[in-house]
TrEMBL record:
Membrane-topology descriptor: Multi-pass membrane protein
Main localization (coarse): membrane
PANTHER family xrefs: MEMBRANE TRANSPORTER PROTEIN, TRANSMEMBRANE PROTEIN YFCA
Protein name per UniProt: Probable membrane transporter protein
Family: Belongs to the 4-toluene sulfonate uptake permease (TSUP) (TC 2.A.102) family.
CC per GO annotation: plasma membrane
Species this protein is from: Nannocystis pusilla
Compartments where located: Cell membrane
Length: 237
């Protein structure tokens, strides 16, 4: 895949996630899946997204709500590993359909048509389920947002805790993808290019976010989700 295109997609993904708190990873996977299989897109993007979330976690480590992040990660790590193993056996058409469904549910949530409210006591099983979703569709950040918002997190605490949870999910699924031969020495070069671009997008998004109103941030999130649904439907066609 062209280096220039990887740089653009990675930068946009980092910028979107830093500004809106979610959506960049889904956008990246959907865009990549237009040029390769969904499984290859998941495997190629995972190491880069891990680095991007590690960067966001390091920047906001003092804002992480550990009461939420730790139990969620305890479920997310094994859940994402199991989901990663399932990807190895799924036909590409099934994975693409899951991408469409995940994007549509995220848009429905943003529009207020579907408002999940998982109880705080369910953080470990919720982490396992969302971790499996991360490995099979890449859309877990959208479901993760519902969990964090139901726990009352907003602003910097929301972004930092989301990054901590995402790190656990990425570690689990990368291990599974590697075991199945999807993450190899050949995929690490384009993954590294994506990682550099995501870090640049993170920095640009961080500067932009400081001047952004809550209303504008919500509009950006909604626009990202509409774009994700469109990309998912295009890939299915």
């Amino acid at each position: 895949m062209e280096i220039g295109l990887l740089l653009v997609l990675g930068w946009v993904a980092g910028w979107l996630t830093t500004v809106a708190g979610l959506g960049g990873g889904v956008f990246l996977i959907l865009a990549l899946s237009l040029r390769m299989s969904p499984a290859e897109a998941l495997a190629l993007s995972s190491p880069a997204l891990l680095i991007g979330n590690l960067h966001r976690l390091a920047a906001g480590r003092d804002e992480v709500d550990r009461r939420i992040a730790v139990p969620f990660a305890l479920g997310a790590l094994p859940g994402s590993a199991l989901g990663g193993l399932l990807v190895l056996a799924m036909p590409p058409a099934v994975l693409q359909l899951l991408l469409v469904l995940t994007s549509a549910l995220a848009l429905a949530r943003a529009l207020g048509w579907w408002l999940p409210r998982p109880p705080a006591a369910a953080l470990v099983p919720a982490g396992a389920a969302i971790g499996a979703m991360a490995a099979t569709t890449g859309g877990a950040g959208l479901a993760l947002g519902a969990v964090l918002q139901s726990a009352g997190l907003t602003g910097a605490a929301y972004v930092a805790t989301a990054a901590a949870a995402a790190v656990a999910m990425h570690v689990g699924r990368i291990a599974a993808y590697g075991l199945g031969g999807l993450v190899t020495s050949e995929t690490m070069v384009p993954s590294a290019v994506l990682a550099v671009a995501i870090l640049a997008g993170n920095l640009a998004g961080g500067c932009f976010r400081k001047r952004l109103s809550a209303r504008a941030g919500a509009r950006i999130e909604l626009g990202v989700l509409f774009a994700c649904v469109a990309l998912a439907l295009f890939g299915l066609a």
